[in-house]
Write a structure and sequence with these properties.
Strand order of the largest sheet: 2-1-5-3-4
Distance between the termini: 66 Å
Radius of gyration: 24 Å
Mean pLDDT: 92
Largest sheet: 5 strands, mixed
CATH architecture of one domain: Roll
CATH superfamily of one domain: Beta-grasp domain
Number of helices: 10
Structural class: alpha+beta
CATH topology of one domain: Ubiquitin-like (UB roll)
Strand content: 5-15%
Low-confidence stretches: 9-13
Bound molecules: iron/sulfur cluster, FE2/S2 (inorganic) cluster
Order of helices and strands: EEHEEEHHHHHHHHH
Number of strands: 5
Shape: flat
Helix content: 25-40%
Length: about 260
């Protein structure tokens, strides 16, 4: 039985210390078998097996998209996908991480667009318009984004809809790696979000106001005071600062001390 196998000698890596009596499970990393404690994420299991990450690992919190991973279970034909830092390793998982995927990344200058945004999308990413609607990208996305739908919105010219729908993308590239139409969905979506932010979304008046205040030197005196303080006093100030409550209604909360706003 696989569970009875002894733990192989470890070479290097940031090894997690398993709790006493942890059940050991067999997994396969790049085709080689390892026995690791259950409950570890794929990322920690890979490290436990002796590997050290130099690429393919960033935030460890499901945000950076550096750890896209494909896996299959022995005896199951389905190819599955996830983020290595978020997916728990399970027995008989055959794992391969895909830390980078070569996508279509045309250069563009948002300040010098040659035509309307939808036409620019067509010029830069013509492949978007060849989507066959297979849904593979949506099934592959570890962020549960309806990728096929945002591609459909792009085709229709609804760039606002596509920008909003793709907002949670972590740029892992897994969708693009499986697209039969060779679409780089995530880089096209990044272009659309940039266009949306620059040309479609109304400008945030409060940001402009604050930028103008910063430029006018309004905060220079306060910053000078902070710079002249002892490190311990700065730490105390930070720890004792008045904080916005977690569930404060947007735009309703104000600190009691407003002299530096
Ligand atoms: S849309 Fe594509 S690149 Fe973005 S998170 Fe989903 S699979 Fe990854
Ligand atoms: S995988 Fe490619 S072709 Fe299939 S729905 Fe997604 S974008 Fe369209
Ligand atoms: S390491 Fe950043 S998403 Fe996994």
């Amino acid at each position: 039985m696989a569970e009875e196998k002894k733990l192989k000698t470890l070479a290097t890596g940031d090894k997690t210390i398993p709790p006493e009596g942890a059940k050991m499970i067999p997994i396969y990393i790049m085709g080689r078998e390892y026995v690791v404690p259950e409950t570890l994420t794929i990322m920690k299991a890979v490290e436990y097996a002796g590997y050290s990450y130099v690429r393919g690992c960033g935030c460890r919190g499901g945000i950076c998209g550096a750890c896209g991973t494909f896996y299959r279970f022995i005896g199951d034909y389905r190819l599955r996908s996830g983020l290595a830092c978020q997916t728990v390793a399970e027995p008989n998982m055959i794992i391969m991480q895909l830390p980078f995927f070569p996508a279509n990344r045309p250069g563009y200058d948002l300040e010098k667009m040659q035509s309307a945004p939808h036409e620019e999308l067509r010029r830069l990413y013509p492949e978007v318009f060849k989507c066959v609607g297979c849904g593979t990208c949506t099934r592959t996305c570890p962020m549960d984004i309806d990728v096929m739908d945002y591609i459909a919105l792009m085709k229709r010219g609804d760039l606002k809809g596509a920008a909003i729908k793709s907002f949670d993308c972590v740029m892992c590239g897994l969708c693009a790696s499986r697209c039969p139409a060779q679409i780089s969905q995530f880089t096209a979506a990044m272009f659309v979000r940039r266009v949306y932010g620059k040309y479609i979304l109304p400008k945030a008046a409060h940001v402009k106001k604050r930028v103008d205040e910063v430029r006018s030197g309004k905060y220079e005196k306060m910053l000078d005071e902070l710079m002249s303080m002892k490190q311990e006093d700065v730490k105390k100030l930070y720890v004792e600062r008045e904080r916005e409550p977690d569930l404060a209604e947007a735009g309703k909360w104000m600190p009691k001390d407003t002299k530096n706003l």
